[in-house]
Amino acid sequence: MSSNQYFQLDVFSQHPGGGNPLGVVVGADGWSETAMQSFAAWTNIVETTYLLRPVSSEASYRLRIFTPTRELAFAGHPSIGSAHVALLSGFAKPRDGVLIQECQAGLLPVRVEGDSSDRRLFIQAPKATILKTGVDEKSLLASTLRKVRLGKLPPAFVEGGRRWWLAELDSEATLRAWHPDHAAIRKIALDSDSLGLCVFARSKDPGHEIVLRAFPAGVGIVEDPASGAANGLVAAYIAAAEPEGPLARGYTVSQGREIGHDAQLILRIDDDATVWVGGQTQTVISGDVQWPYQH
After folding, report:
1. Cα-to-chain-centroid distance, residue 128
2. What is the predicted pLDDT for the residue at 264?
3. Distance, CA of 190 to CA of 192 (rounded, Å)
4. Taking 90 as the threshold, does the pLDDT of residue 2 lie above it?
5. Contact 83, 235 (CB under 8 A)
6. Has this prediction a pTM greater than 0.85?
7. Angle 228-241/76-89 helices, nearest 10 degrees?
8. What is the pLDDT of residue 167?
9. What is the mean pLDDT of the chain?
10. pLDDT range class, residue 295, cuts 50, 70, 90
11. CA dihedral 20, 21, 26, 31 (to 10 degrees)
12. CA distance 7 to 28
């Protein structure tokens, strides 16, 4: 029976309870893959991660990410939260203000800004590829989106660590009031081997420029309170479509209010179109976990 440091966090939030929950096991090198999956199923948190010694000499640590049912190559809020724990526990230290995360999506830098409760972390999102813009008029996605008013950019199918359908809605009010067909989104996700549908809208609120809702039905989640990977793909899509626009170098996002959360994500886009997804993390629980690590 192993005993490891264990943390439960609230990621992309300025206060506990606003963001996306995450469980992190520190130093789980002795755990089998079966044990990792079974513990993630037991916690029943949207994702549980495992901090491991790196294989690459360039990396600060290695990360494995599990939902209750499967392993993921990359996810945004687990990456940010795990980097927070790596620093908090002393498992890794930044070099020149940067950690290097090793995961199935490759070696991804994490920028460290500030200290303690004021710390903000930014993960470099995997490079995005726009696979398709527009939708077939006879498709299930088209019929789903006909029930809501769309915005300026056409819907798109985008890949970058994960695959999502993206759609811009015409206003913040439309986005917040929408009651989508979740069964339809799940079928769309499964048919396209994607996580599901992410919708966004521009906002005139002084606290944020974009509002976003993510429906990752492809992994059994109805709605995500704070999605780093989806936000990274939206940022890449906006920057590619509007390279001279007001959002092309970054913006602040509000997500999760429709399901009782209040997440804040910060997107930054470099001149070379590299996208960084960041924000604050709150430590809610810290202690030890005992789990049969070889079962």
Report:
1. 14
2. 97
3. 6
4. no
5. no
6. yes
7. 120
8. 98
9. 96
10. low
11. -110
12. 13
| Contact present, 12 and 231 (Cβ < 8 Å) | no
Average pLDDT over residues 221-244: 96
Distances in whole angstroms, Cα of residue 53 to Cα of each of 27, 56, 61, 77, 152: 7, 9, 5, 20, 45
The DSSP secondary-structure symbol of 118 reads: G
Q: Under CATH, what is the fold of the domain 129-273?
A: Diaminopimelate Epimerase; Chain A, domain 1 (3.10.310)
**Residue 182 has which token pair?**
């979740």
Which fold, 2-125+280-291? Diaminopimelate Epimerase; Chain A, domain 1 (3.10.310)
Interatomic CA distance for residues 77 and 196, integer angstroms: 17
Residue corresponding to tokens 């899509």: 237
- Predicted pLDDT of residue 150: 98
For residue 214, the 8-state DSSP code is E
Strand 275-279 relative to strand 156-160, pairing: unpaired
Q: What's the DSSP call for residue 41?
A: H
In the block, residue with structure tokens 């994702």: 47
The yes-or-no answer to whether 2-125+280-291 and 129-273 have a common fold is yes
Q: What angle do CA 118, 123, 128 make, to 5 degrees?
A: 145
